[in-house]
Amino acid sequence: MKRDFNEWLKTFKSSICDYGYYVDFEKVYGNVESIKVELNILNSLIGSKNIEDDFRKLIQEYPKILKCIPMLLAVRGREIYAIDGDGEYLFNFYKPNYTANEYIMFMHKTGLFYLISNHIINNLVDYVTGVEVGLDSNGRKNRGGHLMENLVEDYLIKAGLVKGETYFKEMKLSAIERKWNIDLSGISNQGKAEKRFDFVVKKGKTIYAIETNFYTGGGSKLNETARSYKTIALEAKEIDGFAFVWFTDGADGWKSARHNLEETFDVLDNMYCISDMENGIVKELFK
With a cut of 70, which residues of the chain have pLDDT below it? Predict the structure, then answer.
């Protein structure tokens, strides 16, 4: 029975965020651990009544504490640039390039001395952990790009497939041809295009090449993807023992490119969304 595109599209989801999407705590803890000793040394400055002299003594005895300073300002890197009426500076915190007085000036003008000496914070390790959590939120875009891929892989595993045996990750056309002695020149434009699929499943006599994506916003890329996959779908139908599968979703993205998506939907039988996976399509497809 042919599926209804409009009803299928209504099942699309607006988000695909999993539990690890928001903060990569393992990365956060690792980054804090790498400077934990130095942060604990700097903790001796909290509540200091003579913070300039105390700081000067610390950087003389433990010069490595300087490498923690950028992170106190939520900056990743070894250098910080600053300019005002007193001059232009490029402070290096791994290879000190200014005098102790100039680093003291930096601490004053950035507000770090005020933060530390006035006991606004109680522990720099805890403070930097919070800073790292905030900075890690910038990595959500990169993590988001793999969420659909990760979700599909979860369902492949739940269907009983085994990585490296019955399913393979990120496989090029040429590698598929070599492994199973199949001619895919109809897809590769006689070997001129080297397409890479997110997953490849070998089940029975059929090789399934799988693409995955989730779109949170519109744009020309969606139309290009739909047209490209429509071409692959038509070309795949001419190859015995080979099938193309597309797992896609994203209500907010596809609503602006629904017509191109529908054109691909009309020619690609193995086109599924997250709702389909939740309803057992992966087990059914690869049983």
Answer: 1, 142, 144-145, 188-193
Cβ–Cβ contacts within 10 Å for residue 15, how many?
Answer: 14
CATH architecture of 5-19+145-285: 3-Layer(aba) Sandwich (3.40)
287 C-beta neighbours (distance < 10 Å), count? 10
The fraction of the chain above a pLDDT of 70, given in percent, is 96
Q: What is the residue extent of each domain of the chain?
A: 5-19+145-285, 35-138
